[in-house]
């Protein structure tokens, strides 16, 4: 957007609250557009970087809640049930995801173990719980939960640190190398974790962040 100049000096443009509510800024390239909400099933896309800005879906909130509940159940179950069982030389050992993440519990490696467990278990779990806390009242047409805006902001800030899919990729690489040395069998948690990764990706695809922010900042009057 052009910036006005006074005596050759650029001036900071003034926007009233009403004006700002009619603008939307691309989070990737900072391009600014006049806000025009698309209909359900349509998308508003940045013409510069092709980032999807608004993508409202019919009943998307209920779908996201259902996926979040499923992910919470899968994370808890996958943390308890055996993930892999390795057999070699007449001996076998089964480990869960939590056991594998907390293998090293002494010295400086304890910090690494806690971070690993946090990135693959606790951060995804916290994100799903925050999503439920924020979206359930919105979908039920109730007033937003207390501190819903900071909760949703935290959920989005944790998104890059939710590394369940990276853990799954690392396991796949490790299994290729271990397969020649031992017999590897998959436990129930392995398949749960695979479904979990797909659901997390699907949830991110269902969610229109602009629609959530709009619902929190402009709640329906009861």
Keywords:
single chain; alpha+beta; 2 domains; three-stranded antiparallel β-sheet; 8 helices; 9 strands; disordered N terminus
Task: Tell me about this structure.
The protein is 51% helix and 13% strand. It contains eight helices and nine strands. It has two domains: 5-54, no CATH class; 60-217. With 222 residues, it is of the alpha+beta class. The chain has helices at 17-20, 60-80, 97-101, 109-139, 148-157, 164-178, 188-206, 209-217, and strands at 5-6, 9-10, 23-25, 32-34, 44-45, 52-54, 84-88, 91-95, 183-186. A three-stranded antiparallel sheet has the order 8-7-9. Strand 5 and strand 6 (52-54) form a beta hairpin.
Class inferred from helices and paired strands:
alpha+beta
Beta-strand share of residues: 5-15%
Distance between the termini: 38 Å
Major sheet attributes: 3 strands, antiparallel
Parts with pLDDT < 50 across at least 5 consecutive residues: 1-16
Strands, total number: 9
What is the number of domains?
A: 2
Question: Count of helical segments?
Answer: 8
Question: Nearest-angstrom radius of gyration?
Answer: 23 Å
SSE pattern: EEHEEEEHEEHHHHEHH
Multimeric state of these chains? single chain
Shape: elongated
Write the layout of secondary structure elements.
Blueprint: E1 5-6, E2 9-10, H1 17-20, E3 23-25, E4 32-34, E5 44-45, E6 52-54, H2 60-80, E7 84-88, E8 91-95, H3 97-101, H4 109-139, H5 148-157, H6 164-178, E9 183-186, H7 188-206, H8 209-217
Antiparallel strand pairs: 1-2, 3-4, 5-6, 7-8, 7-9
Helix pairs in contact: 2-4, 2-7, 4-5, 4-6
């Amino acid at each position: 957007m052009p910036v006005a100049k006074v005596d050759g000096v650029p001036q900071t443009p003034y926007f009233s609250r009403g004006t700002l509510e009619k603008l939307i800024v691309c989070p990737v390239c900072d391009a600014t557009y006049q806000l025009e909400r698309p209909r359900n099933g349509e998308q508003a896309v940045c013409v510069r970087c092709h980032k999807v800005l608004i993508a409202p879906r019919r009943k998307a909130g209920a779908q996201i809640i259902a996926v979040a509940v499923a992910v919470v159940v899968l994370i808890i179950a996958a943390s308890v049930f055996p993930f892999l069982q390795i057999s070699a030389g007449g001996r076998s050992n089964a480990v869960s995801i939590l056991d594998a993440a907390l293998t090293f519990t002494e010295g400086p490696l304890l910090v690494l173990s806690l971070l690993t467990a946090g990135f693959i278990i606790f951060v995804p779990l916290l994100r799903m719980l925050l999503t439920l806390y924020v979206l359930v009242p919105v979908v039920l047409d109730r007033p937003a939960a207390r501190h819903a805006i900071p909760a949703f902001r935290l959920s989005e800030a944790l998104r890059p640190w939710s590394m369940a899919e990276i853990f799954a990729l690392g396991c796949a690489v490790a299994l290729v190398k271990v397969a020649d040395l031992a017999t590897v069998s998959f436990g129930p948690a392995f398949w749960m974790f695979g479904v979990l990764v797909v659901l997390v990706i699907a949830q991110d695809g269902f969610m229109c962040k602009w629609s959530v922010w709009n619902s929190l900042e402009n709640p329906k009057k009861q």
